[in-house]
Design goal:
By secondary structure, the protein is an alpha/beta fold. The chain has 14 helices and 13 strands. The relative contact order is 0.11.
């Protein structure tokens, strides 16, 4: 094989989620560090931003869970690995990981997986299907929470001779930088959302899924209104329903029931997330199930905004409670409402110091450069 490192990342679709942005960031980092970088995917909106002079894109139906297509993908990956003389194959999801496992066994190349979520299972068949993510030469967990989850649930599949470690996910702190937005842009975004600066703005980003805690958030806003008086704030739920029309209607009805329609806006998408954070005074992550990592929590801190998050999953690792943000009792709307009232009543100097500490926390622990460097270092160790 060539002495130059050649890495092939395989991911179902290149959307805007944490796994996808991590794949994107690492692909370009490798290219900029004298490596050959490849991505195999079925498509996705993020592809238009990939620099194809640096990263080679190959399209295959790796999003499919159809066994026939998965076998086809294995054969195609074998040819790709041999043709491009790939050194390492890195899978970021279960269906493509099975294809990668077969291809790397046949070609005798190193296989890496990143365990991005808890991958729920209700039976042994589903658990076996999930177990492909720990059948690689190097298993990467995105947080200590995920590391513990793997050890508890997949210990019988773990090979002690293979490496298993935590590499925290990271974000681009130069992109999520509060100093890069312009006041005119901020005013334009507020105007497009039908808001102004006469009240504080609470932002809850994230796709519309029941476990993300939108009902809990709306319940909490109702309690805040009861304590601080009606119409004490604006709030924005920012995220697409991704086809969950019934759930979207349900939470909008709840909003109407609490007479929050004049205060609470639903926004499907925002192309400039740093700007969305910048115009907000408070960010909330109300997940009722553990986040594997919780990108919103990191992005808010990087933008020097106070963050309130559930005290479960990755949030316990990414927030320094009462210093860079606040944790509330998971699934408890009263606890969340009290934290919201607390933050809304904080003075500007306290908010500013919390914001500064939050950004320091992200730069130190959750910078994308740190994530990419750690992964690249592990690749080299694996080959050596």
């Amino acid at each position: 094989m060539s002495s130059k490192l050649k890495v092939l990342q395989v991911i179902p679709k290149m959307g805007y989620g944490g796994a996808e942005t991590g794949c994107y960031d690492l692909a370009h980092y490798l290219s900029e560090n004298n490596c050959y970088s490849y991505i195999v995917t079925s498509g996705g909106e993020l592809l238009k931003f990939v620099n194809q002079k640096k990263v080679k894109l190959i399209k295959l139906p790796v999003h499919s869970k159809n066994p026939i297509l998965m076998l086809f993908n294995s054969i195609a990956l074998i040819f790709i690995i041999l043709f491009h003389d790939i050194s390492i194959v890195h899978a970021r999801s279960r269906a493509p990981a099975w294809s990668c496992l077969i291809a790397t066994k046949i070609t005798r190349r190193k296989f890496v997986t990143t365990f991005h979520g808890t991958y729920n299972f209700k039976n042994l068949i589903k658990k076996f299907y999930n177990s492909v993510m720990v059948r690689s030469n190097l298993v990467i967990a995105g947080s200590n929470f995920i590391f513990s989850h793997i050890k508890i649930n997949y210990s019988k599949y773990l090979n002690l001779q293979k490496k298993f470690l935590v590499i925290f996910r990271g974000i681009n702190v130069d992109y999520f930088d509060p100093s890069t937005t312009l006041e005119a842009e901020e005013n334009d975004l507020l105007s497009s959302w039908g808001l102004n600066r006469d009240k504080k703005l609470i932002l809850m980003p994230g796709r519309l899924a029941a476990w993300k805690g939108h009902e809990l958030f709306i319940d909490a806003l109702n309690l805040v209104n009861k304590e601080l008086g009606h119409k004490a704030f604006y709030a924005v739920i920012l995220g697409s329903n991704q086809g969950r029309d019934v759930y979207a209607k349900k939470i909008k009805r709840l909003c109407e029931q609490y007479r929050l329609t004049a205060q609470l806006k639903f926004v499907d998408h925002c192309k400039n997330m740093p700007l969305a954070y910048k115009i907000s005074d408070l960010v909330v992550s109300a997940s009722t199930e553990p986040e594997a990592f919780g990108r919103v929590v990191i992005e808010a801190q990087s933008m020097e905004k106070p963050i309130i998050a559930s005290d479960i999953g990755g949030s316990n690792e990414t927030i320094i409670n009462n210093e860079t943000g606040f944790l509330f009792e998971s699934s408890n709307s009263v606890s969340l409402s009290k934290k919201i009232v607390q933050v809304l009543n904080l003075d500007e100097s306290r908010l500013k110091s919390m914001g500064i500490e939050g950004r320091k926390n992200v730069i130190k622990k959750f910078n994308v450069e740190k994530m990419c460097f750690s992964t690249y270092s592990e690749y080299k160790k694996l080959l050596n």
